[in-house]
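Hi all, long-time lurker, first post. I run a small reading group and we've been trying to get comfortable going from sequence to structure in the token notation. Rather than ask abstract questions, I figured I'd post a concrete chain and ask someone more experienced to write out its structure so we can walk through it together at our next meeting. Sequence below, copied exactly:
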Amino acid sequence: MSPAFGAMEVEHYSKGVLLEPFVHQVGGHSCVLRFNDKTICKPLIQREHQFYETLPTEMRKFTPQYEGVVSVSFEEDEDGNLCLIAYPLNGDHDNLENLDNSDCEPKSKLLRWTNKKTMLLENEKISKEWVRQHRKEEKIKSHKLEEEFEWLKKSEVLYYSVEKKGNVSSQFKPHNPWSMKCHQQQLQRMKENAKHRNQYKFILLENLTSRYEVPCVLDLKMGTRQHGDDASEEKKANQIRKCQQSTSAVIGVRVCGMQVYQAGTGQLMFMNKYHGRKLSVQGFKEALYQFFHNGKYLRRELFESVIKKLTELKSVLEKQESYRFYSSSLLIIYDGKERQEVAVDSDPEDLEDLSEESSDESAGAYAYKPTASTVDVRMIDFAHTTCKYYGEDSVVHEGQDTGYVFGLQNLIDIIKEIRDESGE
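-- Answer (accepted) --
Happy to help. Here is the structure in token form:
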């Protein structure tokens, strides 16, 4: 039973929450949506759902907090716009409201019904109406989506402005091309199936970026093997080829996506998985350097925290008997917001504990007061995870996931190299 949606008395009112694109998704192909500031959701895959409900206690600090399951429908809002709406599962709407969705409740974007049966009838009516009136329109949109996807594949590194007049916007929502692609593809799939099916289960997870003002996110595909035990021969061959042609086979890790804030230009740099697959080991190292560099200086204060957390995760995974995290990713997240600048000729009391490093070597006029920089390291994406406790699996592995651990150790070593080579 999910922690957020236990058995409750079914009442006669229901409220839906508009799901929006999650703008900080930098990798993966499954659509991640914003439920509210602190919660995201993604399509429920049974194996991943099972993992979150049974994962070992010691791993919980390295995964997003699991918050339950919702039902998602493709519908029209009050303005006639097509969108995805989340509803409580099995009538557990009270607990849905307990997830604090007040930050995403503009009245024009919520659907309310006074009777659940009426709600279902309305869903069916909208679906039939949409299929009848919009078939031609969707063919055109589908073609445009394919063109955009091809453009994204070719534009592997992009820059988007996120500042106005030198200040980070309080509503930090840049147009992340990867998240928009995944959102549009999810809408497309659900539209195409609307005539036959219009209710899907999504899992709710902690939004790992919520505590950062300007999240810098690195998505790393971990392990030397990506295909699950149940993969078809075609899928297996395809995944093996991707590993062999990337750094996965050599060091057990490759870049799957990245967004990093460039303080000098007020832009956000995006790198997608297609670029990550092409990188050599040296290119991977340079990408890591770029992730920790904000365009003005290297965020050296982050290294020790990252190394410590990666080492702790490695120790935890070495003790996990029979687990295999095929095609799983590792996220590294930190805040790109600049530290406070203080002029070096300021009052002496203002210069206590300043970093000796200047942020702008050409100017040499500023030093920085260190701030408490937090870095998060989390495992995500468990659609192909297996272990001996999954009774239905035909293949049972023994010992630790050596491919994942191998990748973690190489990642730690490369970050240490960057730290040591950059000096103090």
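A couple of things your group might point at:
The chain has ten helices and 20 strands.
Residues 70 and 88 are 5 Å apart (CA to CA).
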